[in-house]
Each structure stands twice: as C-alpha cells, then as structure tokens.
C-alpha cells in the first residue's frame, strides 16, 4: 500500500434537516478528513448526530451548509450512478427481502458496473468471488438471506460493498446487535480491509472500548463540543474521552483504556499477596464498597495468593467465601 | 434453484398456456371436433361457416384476450408488490383500476342522464367510448399518483395515498349511480364484473397489439426492480435514482392495468395472486426469473379461469371475477402455508 491519502474532506459542514421554513441544525461546523488505509470510528452519545452526519456523508441527506469533497470532487456534483462507484454503505436497517440467495445479494454490489440488464460477466464474477473470500463467507453462498444471523448478515453486506469496489466504505453501527466475539470479528475484518486493501473505512459505533483498541482515528461527536479528532491514545491522555462520556459513577481508566464503574467506598482494608490474585480481590471488594490497597491502615489484613485467600490465619478457598467472611466482620 | 430446473419450469408454464388455449378453443356450448378446429386455424374454408365463426370470431379472440390480460395483470401486480415492498399490493391497490371505473362510470352513467342516449345501446361506438374513458380515467389517477410519488418519501405513505384516491373514486361513482337511469347502472355493473369476451372483432386485435408492445417494456425494468428489493437506501447507494425508478415502475404497471381494465373490466385477484405463485414456484425474488414467470403464469391462470367460466353448464354466464377469486385465493393460501412450513 502506498501511503495514506486524503479521500474525504469535510469543510465547515453543518448537518441537519429542513423543517418547513426553518433549518434544524444537528451538528455544527465540522472540519475533518478521512484517509485511505485507515479505520475511523465515530463515537458519541445517543442523539449527538452520528446518524445524520453519516447520512450526510453518504449523500442521503443534503448538508445545510459547508462542503464535502470526496476523492477530490465535491459530493454535490456526483450523480447517484457515479457516487455508487466511490462510496459503499452498510446500514443498520434490516433487509426486508426474502427468497434471495447470498450470492445474488453480493452480486448486486456489481450493479453500478453492470449493463442495462444487470448481468454479471466473468470479470464481475472474479470480484464477487474475491469479496466472498475476503470476508470468509464462502459457506453462506447458497443460503437465503432471511435465514442469516445478524452477524452473518453484516458480513454479507460488507461483502456487497467490497463487490462494489468503492475506495470508501461507510458503516452505520455495524456491530450493533452482535455478541462480543462477532463484534470483534467484524472490527478486525474492517481493520484488515483498511490495511490490506487501502480502503477508507468510517463507521459509527457505541462499542467504545472496542473502538479504542482497533480504530486508527476516533471522531468524538458531541452537541456541545462539536467534533474532536485524534488517535485513541491521544484522546485518552488529554481527557477528551473521559469528558465526552462523563457520567455519574463511571471513570475512564487511562492506563487500560477501559471504562470502570466508580463504586463509592465506605470501608478500607489492607491487601497484600501475589498478582493476579490481589487484583481479582481488589475488584470484588470494590464492587462491595470496600477499597483495598497495600499500605492502607486497617485492622483487617487480607492476603491473596495461589493457595487461597487469608484474613489473618483464616483461609478461604474462593473469593465468594472471603466476601462472606468480610460481611460478618 | 438450479438453472436447469428454472428453465424446465418456465418451459412447463409456456406449455400450459398452449394447452389451455387449445382447451379454450375445444370446449364450449357448441361441440367442434379437433380436426375441424385445426383446419379452421390453418385457414381452410371447407369447414362449416358456423364453426368458423365460433372459432375465429369468438373462441380465439377470447382466448388471446384472456392470455394477454392475464400476462399484463401478473406483471403489473409483481411491479406493484416490488415497488411498494408490500405483499398485498396489486393492480387495484393504487386506485388505478378505480380510476378506470370512474372513467367508465362517467360516460356510461352520465350519457343517459345528460346526452339523452343510453351508451349501452350504441354498439361499437359505445365500446370504443368505454375503452377510451377507462384509459383516460386510469391515466388521470396514475398521473396523480406519480405526482404524489415525487412529493412523499415513504412507500407506505404513497400506498395509503393510493388507497385513499381509490376510495374517493369509488365515492364519486356512488354519487354518479345515484343520479343515473337504471339501465345505465346495469350496463356499468356488467362492465364491472369483468369479461374476456366483452370486446369484439377489430378491438381485440388492437388490444393484443397494445399488450404485445407494452409487456416487453416491463423487461427493461428488471435491474431496477432487483435493486428496489434491497430498500431505498441500499438501492440509492448502488446508483439507482429512486424517484425516477419509482416513477418508471408505477407508470409501466399503471399503463398495463389501464389497458387491461379498459378492455376487460376490472379483473380482480390475478395481479395479486400470480406473483406470489411464481415466487413460490421458483423460490427466488430475482426479477430476471419472476418477471417472465409472472407473465407466463398470469396468461396461464387467466386462460384456466376463462375455461372454468365457460365450463358446460355455466355457458359463459359465470363472471370472470368470481372464477379468478375462487381459483386464485386458495392457491395463494397454499403457497403461503407451504412457505411458512419451509421457514420454520
């Protein structure tokens, strides 16, 4: 792959809807760019305008003001037919189609290239086959679309946009409704596509922790602050992520890049022993409002090691028993 | 479904049309032997004049009209179901056939009260007038729907608009009936029963030629229809101009219904049933298969219905609409039950 190239540039973009005579602004004044070979995740609380921004970039909703340059050409100058060769989308809406095979559905990705009758030739077939193998869904080929699971359907739609051969792919919450392994699988797949095929991939998601681990760039969208862009680590360190998702009882742990539930504490104990046992005990105690640290002064001293958990001389086989004993103290 | 299976089924549908046409020629209140029918069709003048007249002027045009009307309604129903993504959509649902009825009601019901001549007594001129007014009525409604289609976003909204326009048309017909002479109302009701033999002679030829021109037009929409199956957003992303596509499909479907209704009256149920039957038979939604299948299936089913309506004993007195509903409804139910079983 030859270097990162700016594929999408957004200038002073204001998104929203016309409602009667007045405009309703959803997101204000966005200036940003997307690059080829990068996986960019759009994060933000509900109602921040993620969907509207995405719909505007796809060209489904016209921008209220500002400009979107796609592949060095203004979005407004593209016809539907031309745009179909530049941007592929995967949406959250459920397909209502029945009695269509996965093969036929993925082949529809070739529509912008096929002729009047929509027939696919051997060149199209080669690209369709490649899409199947990239997403690794060859086994789904002859299944009917209505029999697919949510995760399988997302993969099929991703294969469709690969068959579309667009340099840019937009996805609206591709990991929603999926179980955790499937979420990871879809994200890794998208990351691979960005890296190996040089695609510009932009997706909205609520899976913050996953996005922080996999995304090359993060766009944080918020009604108050507009959009903040950076790589996950920078956004973590300068506190942007903590600020964006600020809410009672949740703390962003910069070191692990994970969110932690901030339990109020009312007791202190001293804790010593070996990792990972000390960490496990600390977590369990935190859930019960007990803060534990090595140098805290307390009449209760807990020791955790491979042999078991001790309070003084009393030994407990499991953390559950330990908690039980602490409750009685 | 494999390629060969599809081809075989398609060929069977085509053959069923041939068989039903032959049966339609063969059966009737006057018994005519097979070899005589063959000779008459080959242009021989040696057979009895009466037999020749029955075949050439009655049974043959009726069969061809039935086949063409059925094909038109099947295709039109499929187009409607795809563009509205609603399995209950059919040619009558957008009020287009109501529009035809309105046009006919205007001339049939008002000719007596205003012009002083009952149109039903005018013969061929009356027939042509009815045909033209039906086409005018349905095209008027279709233009209205097309206009609305440009304004509203959702398909459901458009569908409800169509149903409402249909209600308004029926209400106006009700008012017109109230002010009409009894024999005009009778003429209107008979038109409303639907028939493949209403039109005579030269008009049948015009109808068949019109359908032969219109039916192939629908094949230009195959790619568009397949894209519409994915929903507006995906279709747009794959390069389809949704508004234009919707307009083209509604126009094609509407004109087909307008012409069929003008010549045969509002024939119910075929348009709704045929696409379901074909999707069930071929296990696919791909229009490259379902569209020709609906065309052939529609023709075949219409011929079968016509055959039943003309069974010995009924003597052609049975209205086509009763037969199409009686034959079509159970078939659709069977298809739906079958499908449910496979999905579970």
Q: Brief description of this entry?
A:
The complex is a heterodimer of chains A (329) and B (344). Chain A is of the alpha/beta class.
Give structural notes.
The complex is a heterodimer of chains A (329) and B (344). Chain A has 329 residues and is an alpha/beta fold. Chain A contains 11 helices and 17 strands. Chain A has helices spanning 50-58, 80-83, 102-107, 122-135, 150-163, 180-197, 208-214, 232-237, 240-244, 277-287, 319-328; strands at 6-19, 22-35, 39-43, 65-70, 73-74, 87-90, 168-172, 200-204, 217-222, 226-230, 250-253, 258-261, 267-273, 290-293, 301-305, 308-311, 314-316. In chain A, the strands form 4 sheets. Chain A has a 6-stranded mixed sheet with strand order 6-7-8-3-9-10, with helices on both faces. In chain A, strands 14-13-15-16-17 form a 5-stranded mixed sheet. The termini of chain A are far apart. Chain B has a single domain, classed as ABC transporter involved in vitamin B12 uptake, BtuC, CATH 1.10.3470. Chain B contains 14 helices and no strands. Chain B has helices spanning 3-26, 34-41, 49-83, 96-115, 124-151, 155-178, 182-193, 202-219, 222-229, 232-237, 242-264, 270-282, 287-309, 320-343. In chain B, 49% of the residues are buried. Chains A and B meet through helix 2 and strand 6 of A and helix 9 and helix 10 of B.
